[in-house]
Specification:
The protein is α/β, with parallel strands linked by helices and 421 residues long. α13 links the parallel β11 (316-319) and β12. It has 17 helices and twelve strands. It has helices at 39-50, 84-96, 141-146, 148-154, 164-183, 198-203, 218-221, 223-236, 258-271, 286-289, 294-299, 302-311, 324-332, 343-347, 351-356, 371-377, 411-419; strands at 10-12, 15-17, 21-23, 55-62, 100-106, 122-123, 160-161, 188-192, 242-247, 275-279, 316-319, 338-341. It has a single domain, classed as Alpha-Beta Barrel (TIM Barrel). The chain binds flavin mononucleotide (FMN). Flavin mononucleotide binds at residues 24-28, 59-60, 104, 192, 194, 245, 279, 290-291, 297, 319-320, 341-344, 372-373, 376, 382.
């Protein structure tokens, strides 16, 4: 089998990506405790760029100070300028290997947050999270019976309801972080709105019980995400493309459905969003967020993407296509534009290069053992059962380019700023 389509370039906005293979956003918890990128963050991303991924999407970087306390142990931050130089190191290392890199920026965990110091999380409404045992992937169920740490993560505290002032202020703070991402050199921005995080919670009738303009009918429930997108597009001034990641359905009682997501996605496209990155489920619907069995994984989401394709013209990124044959077919049949790999990119950083070199049989396949994610959730650095080098990339010196430009605001942005356009 030839894999021509996988290696066809594609444009997102004005950004040309050399192939159709992306690394999914994954918070690998490699940052310092206070949210700065480490050498391991740099090398982690650079290693996948070196392995041939055309597009790298970063971990969900926490964009605002209000959201910062509620992360899992460690997370990249961008709520002030001090975070820019080290993020720029990631960007330059990825560029050195010819890939493009988009910053995924998160406005916060909402009710899924657990502050280490016990601070009450905030959400659209005071509805706590609870992961039903049967929604855990089968491989985790025995562990959930015996691990107090995991049991603690399965039930969230009762969040407080966000005020209108906080909503409006967070929208502005978020857009400011996006401008910092441009200074750090990122080629694009991805608004992180999937998996039961704050924007997802506003969208969901299950978690949004508000009676003001942010609750009730879909038009109101999508208002927060729409306003965040409008603020972001205005702040970014077309200098880099802006995409959105959303779950295509909630799979929980009273949760939102694909039909509603189609309406929201179309609205976002009309506002000027340049691509859509689909995902599924939430912490509560964990087995959809992280499909578990090989059979399911290879076909995961392609049906939903086909439905989205009927309403959207912008490129769509689809995760969890671990099998090169399925990826090639999905792209050549026009089902998706880009295939993205999460756990499979942990297991095999050289996935694209091995396909290109005709060594498909040498690809180390992810076995869905969940070690990567479970270790992050309990505060340990992730490891991989099939790739012993994952998590140790910082020891590979060639992943750090010698010559660097440093973080500077692109001239194009300054020009737009000066002319007010
Ligand atoms: C350790 C880990 C961290 C993740 N962090 C994020 C994240 O920060 N943002 C996000 O949108 N998805 C995140 N994901 C989800 C992945 O992007 C992807 O959607 C999911 O793993 C399913 O794809 P896969 O089967 O290729 O792993 C994470 C996944 C893993 C394994």
């Amino acid at each position: 089998m030839t894999f021509e389509k996988l290696f066809e370039p594609i444009k997102i906005g004005d950004v040309e990506i050399s192939n159709r293979i992306a690394m999914s956003p994954m918070n690998m918890t490699f940052s310092t405790q206070d949210g700065y990128a480490t050498n391991q963050n740099v090398a982690w991303h650079a290693r996948r760029a070196k392995g041939g991924f055309g597009l790298i999407i970063t971990d969900a970087i926490i964009a605002t100070k209000l959201a910062a306390p509620f992360v899992f142990h460690r997370n990249l931050y961008l709520h002030d300028e001090s975070f820019i130089p080290r993020l720029n190191k990631i960007v330059e290392a990825v560029h050195h290997f010819g890939a493009k890199i988009f910053a995924q920026l998160s406005i916060g965990f909402g009710r899924q947050g657990h502050a280490i110091d016990g601070t009450q999380p905030y959400a659209p409404s005071p509805v706590p999270m609870e992961i039903p045992f049967e929604m855990l992937p089968q491989v985790l169920q025995p562990l959930a019976k015996v691990s107090p740490e995991l049991q603690k993560q399965m039930i969230g505290p009762i969040p407080r309801e966000m005020t209108i002032e906080e909503i409006l202020s967070e929208e502005e703070r978020y857009a400011e972080a996006c401008v910092r991402a441009i200074t750090a050199g990122f080629d694009g921005i991805e608004i992180h709105a999937p998996h039961g995080y704050l924007e997802h919670e506003f969208l969901s009738p299950r978690t949004n019980r508000r009676t003001d303009v942010y609750g009730g009918p879909l038009e109101n429930r999508m208002r927060f995400l729409v306003e965040v997108t409008e603020h972001t597009l205005k702040a970014v001034r077309g200098v880099v493309p802006v995409g959105v990641r959303m779950s295509c359905a909630e799979h929980m009682p009273q949760g939102f459905t694909l039909d509603e997501v189609k309406v929201v996605a179309k609205k976002l496209e009309n506002l000027g969003v340049s691509y859509f990155n689909i995902s599924d489920g939430s912490y509560e619907a964990l087995k959809y967020f992280f499909p578990e069995d090989m059979e399911h994984v290879e076909n995961h989401l392609l049906k939903e993407v086909m439905e989205l394709k009927e309403v959207l013209s912008i490129p769509i990124i689809t995760p969890s296509i671990h099998d090169p044959v399925v990826a090639e077919r999905a792209i050549s049949e026009g089902i998706t534009d880009i295939a993205s790999l999460g756990r499979q990119a942990i297991a095999e950083p050289d996935w694209p290069n091995k396909i290109k070199e005709g060594k498909v049989d040498k690809i180390r396949r992810c076995n869905r053992c969940w070690q990567c994610l479970m270790r992050c959730m309990v505060g340990l650095y992730p490891r991989c059962a099939v790739n012993p080098e994952a998590g140790f990339e910082e020891h590979e010196s060639e992943l750090f380019p010698e010559k660097r430009k440093g973080a500077v605001m692109p001239a194009k942005y300054l020009q737009h700023q000066a002319t007010g356009k």
